[in-house]
Design brief:
Lysozyme, 8 helices
Length: 186
């Protein structure tokens, strides 16, 4: 009888350790891949027909959810848009361009970032190509797609010639999968 009780106690201890380990792992994952600005992100992702996991991943990788982030090339806000890109997106949607400091407003930044992703998806259709265009620019990606060294079908990239863009695409792609896994979102 003593051995039976010991076995039950050990099973309970092991079960608690496994459960605690899983819970701890999930907590760590949610710290690494947070959900912030969810109302703004989900509203705009839905409005522009984007997967929420894509938008969360771009924001996480671009600014780590810092609405005041500024890159070394002058990209601003959560989704790291340059003033030139902001102007271009405004022109495509018939909006009036104001001040590039508007990009520090999460509502404006996420809306414009989602619009840019939508325009890229409409043109390129493939998520990895869309991400390459988001990072390196649409005109560069068009050049790469027309070069047989980088694309076999002029639709998808088999190779990205810029290592920083290639790393970016991989990083965001992994983050998309993590957001899907952790939060069970599309």
């Amino acid at each position: 009888m003593k051995n039976f009780i010991k076995a039950i106690i050990w099973l309970v201890v092991i079960a608690l350790l496994v459960y605690g380990g899983f819970y701890g792992y999930q907590k760590i994952q949610k710290t690494i891949y947070p959900i912030k600005y969810s109302e703004i992100i989900e509203k705009n992702a839905d409005e522009y027909g984007l997967e929420r996991s894509l938008v969360y991943a771009v924001v996480k990788c671009e600014s780590k959810f810092n609405k005041n982030a500024v890159s070394n090339v002058g990209a601003k806000g959560l989704m790291q848009l340059t003033p030139e890109t902001y102007k271009w997106v405004c022109s495509k949607y018939g909006d009036t361009y104001n001040d590039s400091d508007d990009l520090f407003d999460p509502e404006i930044n996420v809306k414009m970032g989602c619009r840019l992703l939508r325009l890229n998806l409409k043109e390129f259709r493939n998520v990895k190509t869309v991400l390459a265009a988001y990072h390196a620019g649409r005109s560069r990606v068009k050049e790469w797609l027309n070069n047989s060294d980088y694309s076999d079908d002029q639709k998808t990239l088999k190779k990205i010639p810029y290592s920083d863009t290639s790393k970016y695409v991989e990083k965001v792609t992994q983050a998309i999968e993590k957001y899907k896994e952790i939060y069970n979102i599309k």
